[in-house]
Amino acid sequence: MLLRAASGALAAAGVGPGSRLCCALSGGVDSIVLLDLLHALAPSLGFSLQAAHVHHGLSAHADAWARACEARCAQLKVPFALFRVEVPCGDSEGLEAAARRVRHAVLDGVECDWLVFGHHQDDQAETILFRLLRGSGVRGAAAMAAFEPPRAARPGRLRPLLGCRRAAIEAWARQRGLAWVEDESNAALDFSRNHLRHRVLPVIGERFPAAVSTLARAAEHFREASELLDQLAAQDQAACGGRTLRRDLLLALPDARVANLLRWLARRNGLRAPARARLDEALRQMRAVAASHPLRVELGDMACCVYRGQVWLDSDAADCLQPRRWAGEESLPWGAGSIDFRPAVGEGVARAALDGAGSVMLAMCRPGLRMRLGGGRPRRSFRKLCQEAGVPAWMRERLPVLWIDGEPAWIGGLGVAAEFACAPAGPGVVPEWRVRGP
Ligand SMILES: Nc1ncnc2c1ncn2[C@@H]1O[C@H](COP(=O)(O)OP(=O)(O)OP(=O)(O)O)[C@@H](O)[C@H]1O
């Protein structure tokens, strides 16, 4: 039964000949059984198997767990990797959460297609209950996925035992005579999760004997709903103009859809989704101020920026705006956006000034920058130019400046310096700044 469930879950994720699996081995009964099952399935499904243990150094027994994992892998002739990590103390989310974050980060670096975890149905029920009690939304209530496909350089995640009960896993371990280690923290009732496991779920089970599988089923419904919300966010993003959103189109959407879209954008960029109250505040301000008013609202790991009719999420510290040499490229990256250089006639920077220059650099503003924007106009300081053009203070340090032999020739959002401007009907290059969210 357990073997069939695991094999079905692997097949559903497309695991087959050539797939490289790594069993995340804690040494506890769940992952010891998982390793046993994967080892049994590898020849018939044709995947290669390795195992990895993360040594957090937090428990007095940590060395013994690592040795037990290594010994079991040696018995099974499964290649084994041990990772020693340091868990930072004083994490705002607590030691357990910090350990989990460090563990996942190190496991993500394992050379494989799939990391395989021993989570089971009882874990799933505890997770959904725990998250609901913390007021989580649809996404959090979706709890854990049976599989998460590989992303960028990160291996995918598989949880082949997610449909299996803890009791069935323990029964398998006993029947096969497997040895495992007990994590003493699992018995400690002071952790909320353990409290749910040992105190709350048994009481619920007295009245609702199928509570664990029912809660796991509810998680699946939430997962479906969460996927639909993600699809809606992708559609809304496209309808609002793509990577940078058009303010007018975005604000034509109801609040709940704007919030859904901003959360989705944050997650897609590896940032923590902003708290509900911050999102509400961003929306309130966006709706309250005039369309032409620039705005920057902090949203935790990022900020929501509104400028010249565009809205984007900004996680870009100004110090990531690296100076770059321009040597005729069509486009250069600038923060999360780009500067595109468009050949033109009678506008932009004079081609001759660019071609004859010793160095053309794209960089931030430097102290003391002064520039004359038009023939008859006075030379002005950078601050004055920004004030006149209504560039908000938070935007100023991000403005790209094109420096020709150390002189400012163009400032993004402001214009071309009179000395470098292209003559009427002469060949020119127009730099175009494309602001984009992360
Ligand atoms: N120290 C470890 N080294 C390698 N894998 C581990 C380790 N600890 C846990 N795992 C893997 O994670 C699974 C879940 O473990 P556990 O329930 O202790 O973690 P969790 O914190 O509840 O979950 P998660 O780490 O996924 O958030 C285990 O079955 C195992 O596959």
From TrEMBL:
Protein name listed in UniProt: tRNA(Ile)-lysidine synthase
Gene name in the database record: tilS
Summary of the function given for this chain in its UniProt record: Ligates lysine onto the cytidine present at position 34 of the AUA codon-specific tRNA(Ile) that contains the anticodon CAU, in an ATP-dependent manner. Cytidine is converted to lysidine, thus changing the amino acid specificity of the tRNA from methionine to isoleucine.
Pfam families: ATP_bind_3, TilS, TilS_C
Cellular component aspect of the GO annotation: cytoplasm
Coiled-coil boundaries: none
Family statement drawn from the similarity comment of this UniProt entry: Belongs to the tRNA(Ile)-lysidine synthase family.
Catalytic activity of the protein: cytidine(34) in tRNA(Ile2) + L-lysine + ATP = lysidine(34) in tRNA(Ile2) + AMP + diphosphate + H(+)
GO molecular function: ATP binding; tRNA(Ile)-lysidine synthase activity
Domain free text: The N-terminal region contains the highly conserved SGGXDS motif, predicted to be a P-loop motif involved in ATP binding.
Annotated signal sequence range: none
